[in-house]
Specification:
14 strands; Rossmann fold; 2 domains; alpha/beta; Hypothetical Protein, Haloacid Dehalogenase-like Hydrolase, Chain: A, domain 2; 10 helices; globular
Length: 272
């Protein structure tokens, strides 16, 4: 049994952060040919909800870089490797030292909540007003963060230099891992996402491989957070726009995500 895992941003999605009509048609062809596929993304469930709406993703889905697995058939949410109070405090302290507002993502009472202090920069205010409100998350002051909150990850946006410095600090911590990349807000800004070090796509992919009885795992991805699943995949493919490290690890490099590279490859690979 082939089992395909798609990263979203920079991989399956185009420049408008959408699944193009051509890619949508290709996914439909996969389904008609009984080829199993799902997503493995750093996005939260809510931020991916509108993107996946109208597309058939019926198998368990991996979110938050492996922290969250959602089974749409059984309506079951599984959370693994959440951040502890000590780890949350560490992230907040480092962010504050760099003048960056941390956005703490948690699942509380089956609701996606985002806790944060007062934003310090316009780019952070825009993130709240244009993105977080659109995904219908519950936006709350950081003072309301409970010791019982199930914190999946902490995300931030800021100047590229500040984010790079934070990335180095987070990745020296034994229990933390940080992923970063250029922000859509412009080349002067970068985003960063911090998780528990044990949380990664590879662990979640291995779990679903065993659960679904897959004999051949095929992964598509473009960035650092995809390396863990590339390391265990039977086949791994990086689009032309991927980071150098992941292209070097991939079985092959395929077309650019803006040009439906994944979809064109799948049609040839499976004779769709």
């Amino acid at each position: 049994m082939d089992l395909i895992f798609f990263d979203l941003d920079g991989t399956l999605l185009n420049s408008a952060s959408e699944i193009s009509p051509f890619t949508k048609e290709t996914l439909s062809l996969l389904g008609k040919n009984n080829i199993a596929y799902t997503v493995a993304t750093g996005r939260t469930m809510l931020s991916a909800k509108n993107i996946l709406k109208g597309h058939v993703f019926s198998l368990p889905q991996i979110y938050n870089n492996g922290v969250t697995i959602w089974d749409p058939v059984e309506q079951k949410l599984t959370l693994e490797n959440l951040l502890s109070k000590t780890e949350i405090s560490k992230v907040i302290n480092i962010a504050e030292a760099h003048g960056i507002t941390p956005f703490i993502h948690a699942i509380d009472n089956h609701q996606h909540c985002i806790y944060h202090a007062a934003p310090l920069h316009d780019v952070e205010k825009e993130l709240i007003s244009r993105h977080y409100l659109d995904i219908q998350a519950k936006i709350l002051p950081i003072e309301e963060l409970s010791s019982d909150s199930q914190v999946t990850n902490i995300s931030m946006i800021g100047s590229a230099d500040a984010v790079a410095a934070m990335w180095r600090e987070f990745n020296t911590h034994s229990n933390l891992v940080a992923y970063s990349g250029p922000a859509i807000e412009g080349r002067l800004f970068s985003w960063i996402d911090v998780h528990h070090r044990l949380a990664n796509k590879g662990v979640a992919v291995s779990s679903l491989r065993h659960q679904l009885g897959a004999t051949n795992v095929i992964c598509f991805g473009d960035s650092d957070n995809d390396l863990s699943m590339f390391n265990l995949a039977d086949e791994s493919y990086a689009p032309e726009n991927a980071k150098t490290a992941i292209k070097e690890l991939a079985s092959d490099v395929i077309g650019h995500n803006h040009a439906d590279g994944v979809a064109h490859f799948l049609r040839e690979r499976f004779s769709l």
